[in-house]
């Protein structure tokens, strides 16, 4: 496994309940500021194996990028975040100022 992937997995696993990070933010913290799409691939292929809290990763606008019609996953992501206390505005976005997590 590549160092970037290992770093990304560790960062994602560390996100506490009720907090979120963006794809680009995880990529930058893992060492590749232009690797947001790689984070998407990591989440898709490794979430089950590494028990990643995939629902805590959102897009740079504070929205859910998983389409709601993709086997219901978009709604599942929203429901999981709501259950952790993350609130959405009327446009379906999360306030990054309020809920964004910054690793130490």
Largest sheet: 2 strands, parallel
Overall shape = globular
State the domain count: 1
Q: Helix fraction?
A: 40-55%
Question: In the CATH hierarchy, what is the architecture at level 2?
Answer: Orthogonal Bundle
Summing up helix and strand content along with how strands pair, one would put the structural category as mainly alpha
Element-by-element helix/strand order: HEHHEHH
CATH superfamily: Winged helix-like DNA-binding domain superfamily/Winged helix DNA-binding domain
The count of DSSP E runs of length 2 or more, i.e. the number of strands, is 2
Based on CA atoms alone, the radius of gyration comes out at 13 Å
By CATH, the topology is Arc Repressor Mutant, subunit A
Distance between the termini: 24 Å
User: What portion of the residues fall into strands of 2 or more residues?
Assistant: under 5%
List unreliable stretches of 5+ residues.
Answer: none
In the CATH scheme, the class would be Mainly Alpha
